[in-house]
């Protein structure tokens, strides 16, 4: 009989979750939607406008979010960019549903509290509002635009 240790179960479960999340991200990238027939084409240096894009004032700060092609989203708070990183994340719903792996966005401000982007139509807006709430009266520094990888 094989002697299975709790440590091994946790190790292989974590590895399996990481592999499944990586496959999910890869599948999404390969299945990116094609432009609709009759949709206006973007000219060189110009992105198509996504209906989820926003530009508004929230708690006295101008917030702007753009959903760009390839999942490279853009967030600005009072004109200062905030680098975002998409990571596979295990989400545990508060309503009692089963935990699931999804894509979470993190930044230097919410690094340990990813916001789900893929199932929420307003995920980017939810993220920037959370960041404005955390910042309060503070402003982003120029370093907030520095990207990093995980």
From TrEMBL:
Q: Mind telling me which PROSITE patterns this protein's record contains?
A: TAT (PS51318)
- GO BP terms, alphabetized: melanin biosynthetic process
Where along the sequence do coiled-coil regions lie?
none
How far does the signal peptide extend, from start to end residue? 1-31
Instruction: List the keywords (alphabetical).
Output: Signal
Domain of life of the source = Bacteria
User: One MF term from GO for this chain?
Assistant: copper ion binding
- What Pfam families does its record include? MelC1
Name of the protein this chain belongs to: Tyrosinase
Q: Which organism is it from?
A: Actinoplanes utahensis
